[in-house]
Write a structure and sequence with these properties.
mainly beta; eight-stranded antiparallel β-sheet; about 60% strand; about 170 residues; two-stranded antiparallel sheet
């Protein structure tokens, strides 16, 4: 069996969060929580925030709460109320393989390109996981597979560049 592929029985629920924060460059500083959790894969909106901005990871602070996070679009936004949307996937049966961050999900009702972005209570098997789509999916068989890696050659620098579907903070 391919270790990068898992088959599970799961459902995805729409989840939301609300918090106060500001953005400088690719760093989001959350200063107060109103509701929900701040998780990787969350699409955020608020006054001064670039449309379709996503949280890519946490740098420091309380897990899912007040702290510093990375976002995928560099920008400057003054302190404001921020709303977030993401999905919470609840896995009830692990048919085969193991779930991990970065896998792409497929199944009946699953939005194409949906990625597993963060662990919840699950650590590869049954439990909860966070995904980057908040489309509601009733309990069904979901396949999770490793995201493709693309390697290109940069003739200017003389080096190779590898990219994948896994997002994270810029290095």
């Amino acid at each position: 069996a391919n270790p990068n592929v898992a088959s599970v029985t799961a459902a995805i629920a729409a989840s939301t969060s609300s918090f106060t924060g500001s953005i400088a460059g690719n760093l989001l500083t959350v200063t107060a929580m109103t509701s929900g959790n701040v998780v990787a894969g969350t699409t955020i909106s608020g006054t001064g925030i670039t449309a379709s901005t996503k949280i890519t990871g946490q740098v420091s602070g309380t897990v899912g709460g007040v702290g510093v996070y990375t976002v995928d679009i560099n920008q400057v936004a003054a302190s404001t109320t921020i709303s977030g949307t993401y999905g919470t996937m609840t896995v009830t049966v692990l048919g085969s393989g193991s779930l991990s961050v970065g896998q792409t999900l497929a199944g009946s009702g699953v939005t194409a390109g949906t990625k597993l972005t963060q662990l919840g209570t699950g650590t590869g098997g049954t439990g909860t996981y966070f995904v980057d789509s908040n489309a509601v999916v009733a309990s069904t068989t979901i396949t999770a597979a490793g995201s493709a890696v693309v390697v290109t050659y940069d003739s200017v620098s003389g080096g190779f560049l590898s990219t994948s579907g896994i997002t994270g903070p810029a290095l």
